[in-house]
């Protein structure tokens, strides 16, 4: 999906050589996370001998169920082990309550802050030979700020006597420069691969002239001040509402998309509909010291425990994590096996119109490895 040279450069990871021995944290979380994260582990175990790799695994905990048991959605022990022992991790899904619960906040949002996972990279690509529309885009989402800083308050309006809720939206120059840089580096690698590349900066600066205006201004500055490096990349801007419309009408027009946190979250989940299901779309949370692979689906409590969740998003996220860690050959083996499974169209879970179980799909992909 992406080449490791692009990802390593974009994440500014300065490995003299990619590590052969790695410790991977496994955080199933809630719901179907407990069913799909084992698939990622099985795939890593399958590829390690062929490429001379060695993986050690540590089981870790986070999520709503963990909160109910311990009073903490993200235990400090999980954070410290990830910081001190792990080069990579796989994060499943969390089931968050829709109403406020005192003391609870999203563990994945907190984990991104704790580990400095500043970029969420989500490739959305159709498989040649399937009935899906031709789609090949990468959505690069700023991962640390925007409305997700969770500065909210509710108060009584003295004029009306009714409740008002306020939320702070934060866009900083530092975070925007960082996310623009990784997006341009990914676009540059795609330029080398395909001979052409575009970067589309998504914003709503026509309404949010200061916050989104700053995002737009800084992205443009990063591009303009490095024209000697990025000048062959076509630079575009798109207001987020028209971006949604065009993404579904003309997905072939988009290549690399960079967006603030909230817009990136919405766009990347919506884009999954172009390639069949959230169950097939991967992501990687990238920081300077660790990479966390994370499937894009939620905890899906309606099917949890039935053994029919789609493991492909997790398996592709595992490959994406390996790419950021510098192991492109292993990642490409995994991608090819997954693509072959989708192209064959025989062993598939119900979200893709099939009747196979989670393990049936895992076994089919393992057999192709």
Automatic annotation (TrEMBL):
<dbReference type="GO" id="GO:0051287">
    <property type="term" value="F:NAD binding"/>
</dbReference>
<dbReference type="InterPro" id="IPR019818">
    <property type="entry name" value="IsoCit/isopropylmalate_DH_CS"/>
</dbReference>
<keyword id="KW-0460">Magnesium</keyword>
<dbReference type="GO" id="GO:0006099">
    <property type="term" value="P:tricarboxylic acid cycle"/>
</dbReference>
<dbReference type="GO" id="GO:0004449">
    <property type="term" value="F:isocitrate dehydrogenase (NAD+) activity"/>
</dbReference>
<dbReference type="InterPro" id="IPR024084">
    <property type="entry name" value="IsoPropMal-DH-like_dom"/>
</dbReference>
<dbReference type="Pfam" id="PF00180">
    <property type="entry name" value="Iso_dh"/>
</dbReference>
<dbReference type="GO" id="GO:0047046">
    <property type="term" value="F:homoisocitrate dehydrogenase activity"/>
</dbReference>
<keyword id="KW-0520">NAD</keyword>
<keyword id="KW-0597">Phosphoprotein</keyword>
<protein>
    <recommendedName>
        <fullName>homoisocitrate dehydrogenase</fullName>
        <ecNumber>1.1.1.87</ecNumber>
    </recommendedName>
</protein>
<comment type="pathway">
    <text>Amino-acid biosynthesis; L-lysine biosynthesis via AAA pathway; L-alpha-aminoadipate from 2-oxoglutarate: step 4/5.</text>
</comment>
<keyword id="KW-0457">Lysine biosynthesis</keyword>
<keyword id="KW-0028">Amino-acid biosynthesis</keyword>
<feature type="domain" description="Isopropylmalate dehydrogenase-like">
    <location>
        <begin position="23"/>
        <end position="365"/>
    </location>
</feature>
<keyword id="KW-0560">Oxidoreductase</keyword>
<dbReference type="GO" id="GO:0006102">
    <property type="term" value="P:isocitrate metabolic process"/>
</dbReference>
<keyword id="KW-0479">Metal-binding</keyword>
<dbReference type="GO" id="GO:0009085">
    <property type="term" value="P:lysine biosynthetic process"/>
</dbReference>
<comment type="similarity">
    <text>Belongs to the isocitrate and isopropylmalate dehydrogenases family.</text>
</comment>
<dbReference type="GO" id="GO:0005739">
    <property type="term" value="C:mitochondrion"/>
</dbReference>
<dbReference type="GO" id="GO:0000287">
    <property type="term" value="F:magnesium ion binding"/>
</dbReference>
């Amino acid at each position: 999906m992406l080449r490791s040279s692009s990802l390593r450069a974009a994440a500014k990871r300065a490995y003299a050589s990619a590590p052969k021995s790695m410790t991977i944290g496994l955080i199933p979380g809630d719901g179907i996370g407990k069913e799909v994260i084992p698939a990622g582990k099985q795939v890593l175990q399958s590829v390690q001998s062929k490429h001379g790799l060695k993986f050690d695994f540590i089981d870790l905990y986070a999520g709503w169920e963990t909160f109910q048991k311990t009073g903490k959605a993200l235990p400090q022990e999980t954070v410290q082990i990830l910081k001190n022992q792990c080069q990579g991790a796989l994060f499943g899904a969390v089931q968050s309550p829709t109403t406020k619960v005192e003391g609870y906040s999203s563990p994945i949002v907190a984990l991104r802050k704790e580990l400095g996972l500043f970029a969420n990279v989500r490739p959305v690509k159709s498989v040649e030979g399937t009935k899906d529309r031709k789609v090949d885009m990468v959505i690069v989402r700023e991962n640390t700020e925007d409305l997700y800083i969770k500065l909210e308050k509710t108060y009584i309006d003295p004029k009306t006597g009714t409740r008002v809720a306020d939320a702070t939206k934060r866009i900083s120059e530092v975070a925007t420069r960082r996310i623009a840089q990784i997006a341009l580096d990914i676009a540059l690698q795609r330029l080398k691969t395909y001979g052409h590349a575009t970067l589309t900066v998504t914003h709503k600066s026509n309404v949010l002239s200061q916050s989104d205006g700053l995002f737009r201004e800084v992205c443009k500055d990063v591009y303009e001040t490095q024209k000697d490096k990025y000048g062959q990349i076509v630079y575009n801007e798109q207001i987020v509402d028209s971006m949604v419309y065009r993404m579904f009408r003309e997905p072939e027009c988009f290549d690399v998309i960079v967006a603030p946190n909230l817009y990136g979250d919405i766009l990347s989940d919506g884009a999954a509909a172009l390639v069949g299901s959230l169950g097939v779309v991967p992501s990687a949370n990238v920081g300077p010291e660790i990479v966390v692979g994370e499937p894009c689906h939620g905890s899906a409590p309606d099917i949890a425990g039935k053994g029919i969740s789609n493991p492909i998003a997790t398996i592709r996220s595992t490959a994406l994590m390996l790419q950021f860690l510098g192991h492109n050959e292993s990642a490409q083996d995994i991608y090819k096996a997954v693509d072959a499974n989708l192209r064959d169209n025989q062993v598939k879970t119900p979200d893709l119109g099939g009747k196979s179980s989670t393990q049936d799909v895992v076994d089919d992909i393992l057999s192709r490895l």
